[in-house]
Amino acid sequence: MIKYTAPIILIIIGILLFERRNLKDMKTAHRWLVYSMLAVGGAIWIYVYGSDRTVHPTRWLQMLLEPFDPIR
Amino acid sequence: MQVISARQLVLIGTIFTLSSTLISVQSQMIPHAKQHIWLSHLLGMVVIAISMWLLARTLSRFPDHDLFQALLARFPSLGKVAIALYVLFFFFILTRDIRMLIDFVNVALLPTTPMLALAILTMFTVCVSARGGIEVMGRVTELYGPLLIAMLFFLPLLLFREFDTANIMPFWRLDVPGVSRGAWYILPYLGEAIVMPMIFMGRTFRFRHGLIALGLGTFVLIALAMQAMLALGQPIMERMLYPNYELVRQLRITDFLDRFDLPMVGVWLPTMLAKITINLYVVCYGLRRMIPGLWGAAMVNPVGFLAMVCSIWFFEDAIQLYELNRVWPTLALCFELLLPILFYLILRPKKQAIQKT
Prior knowledge:
heterodimer; A: 4 helices; B: Hydantoin permease; globular; germination (chain B); Spore_GerAB (chain B); transmembrane (chain B)
C-alpha cells in the first residue's frame, strides 16, 4: 500500500508547499476547489493502483459511442 | 497584457494539428485509404477549414473577445455551460496526449523506466511552462516548431534510397468510401486546431491564420504519410503502432549517425510538450472564465496533477487508446463542427452594443 501511496502523497505535499502563498491569498471557495482537485487526484491514484480490476472510463465511452460509429 | 505575433499564432495552430497526429493515427487510416491516404488528409482538412471559417466569422463579431469571453458576454448562464463542455473536452485531449507521450517514450525509448516517473517528469515540465502563460508557449513554439517542420521537409532527401514507387500503386484507382473512412480517423486530430479562437481575441485571430496553420500541418502530415508508404509499404505501415518513428529509424547517415532517430525525436518531444502545455493553459483559462475571480496560474499545478492521474486511469493501455481513435470522432466532431455551426448561427453581439459602436 505504502509503495504506491507514498509518491502521490509526496507530490500533493509538494504542490501544497509550492502554492502555499497563493492558497493564502485565494478566496475560501477557490482554495477548497484546489484541495478537492488534489484529493480527487489522490483518490483516483489509490483506486488505480490499489484495485485489482480497475474500470477505465474510456472503455465505457467506447461502448457508448460504438452505435454511432459509421465505419463498423 | 500578453502579446502573441501572427507567426507564433500560426505555429501554435500547426503544432496542435501536427504533434500528436503524427504518432499513430495514420497507421489506422492506411487499411482504409491505402495509397490515397493523402486524399483523406485533404478531405479532413477541408471539413475542419469550414469549422475554422465559422469560428473566425463568429469571432469577427467580437473583436475584443476570445470565444469564451464572447460566450459569457452574450449568454452568461448557457455560456458557462458551453465553456464547461469545452473545458472537459480539452481536459480529455490533455490526458490523452500525456498518455500518448508517456506510452511512446516507454515503448520506444525508455522501456525499463516506470510510467509514473515519466508522467511526473512530463507534468513537472508542463506545469512550469504553463505558469509562464501563452507568451512563453508562443516563444517555445517559435523555437521548435520551424525546426520540426524543416526537419520533416528534409526527410525525403535522406530517405530517397529507401523509396519504392511500387508501394503506392495503383495510384489512379480511387476508392472513395475508403478515403472517407480514412478521413474519419484524422478529423478529430486536425480539428484540435480550433483551440486558436478559444484563447485569442477576434482582432488577433483571423481565418487566414487558422487556414495557414491547418494547411501547413496537413501538408507535413501528408508528406510523412507518403514517405512512410514509399519506404515501408502499406502492409508494414498498418501493423505498426508508431509508423513514423519506424520511418525515421530507417535513416542511417554514415556509421556515426546510425541512431539519427534520437535527435529527430529530440526535436519532436518539445513540440509535443508545448501542445500539452497549451492544452493545460486552455483548461485553466476556461476555469478562470467560468469561476469569476479565480487565479488561473494557481490552478495549473492542481489541474496538471489531476490530468496526470487521469491519463493513467482513463486508458487501459496504448492499444486501447489506439482503438479509441475509431469512435472518438463521433464525440469530437460535436465540439469541432456542430458547436461552431451553432455559435455561427446564434452568437451575435447585443443590438445595443452594435448601436453604441
